[in-house]
Amino acid sequence: QMLVGGLVGSSGASLACPDFPFCQPERWYGIGGAQFLQMLHRLMAVLLLPLLLLNIKAGAVAYSGHRVLLFFFVFLPICLYLLQVLLGWLNLLLGIPVFITVSHLFTAQLLLQTQVQNLRLQARS
Fold first, then answer.
1. Is 19 left (phi over 0), alpha (psi -120 to 50) or beta?
2. N or C: which end of the chain has fewer CB within 10 A?
């Protein structure tokens, strides 16, 4: 997901789809190039949600007695995912401002890190 997001940003495809969440829904049959990259990025975000939720559920079970771990591996990832969607939408709406773009990248990294650490700690126990 982060690789495709990087391709979207570096190829200039960030504003290829002016509509959110879809890309000109009346013409799905002709989508290609930059629009394809943008829609792939959005679709992957939706498809990764069930994996995120499974990892969060496993974390909730594994850390049921630990408030701090519950916050970091259950509540925080949900908030980061929602923030990621919001920042992606704001990027589109506001024309890719640098602060929003950097925040979108930073939030993606934080979300990935919470999931990697969650899996790492679950493997130990």
1. beta
2. C
Q: Which residue has the tokens 């499974």?
A: 54
Q: DSSP letter for 79, please.
A: H
Q: What is the pLDDT of residue 74?
A: 87
Q: Could you tell me the two tokens for 9?
A: 């940003």
- Cβ(35)–Cβ(50) under 8 Å? no
- Taking each helix axis from N to C end, the angle separating 98-124 and 76-94, rounded to the nearest 10 degrees, works out to 160
What's the CA gap between 59 and 35, in Å, rounded? Answer: 36
Catalogue the long-range contacts made by 39-45 (C-beta closer than 8 Å, 24 or more residues apart). Answer: 40/4, 41/1, 41/4, 41/5, 41/8, 42/17, 42/88, 44/1, 44/4, 45/1, 45/84, 45/85, 45/88
Sign of CA dihedral 67, 68, 73, 74: positive
- The whole-number pLDDT of residue 112 equals 93
Q: Mean pLDDT for each consecutive 10-residue tract of the chain (125 residues)?
A: 85 80 65 82 90 90 87 90 94 91 94 91 82
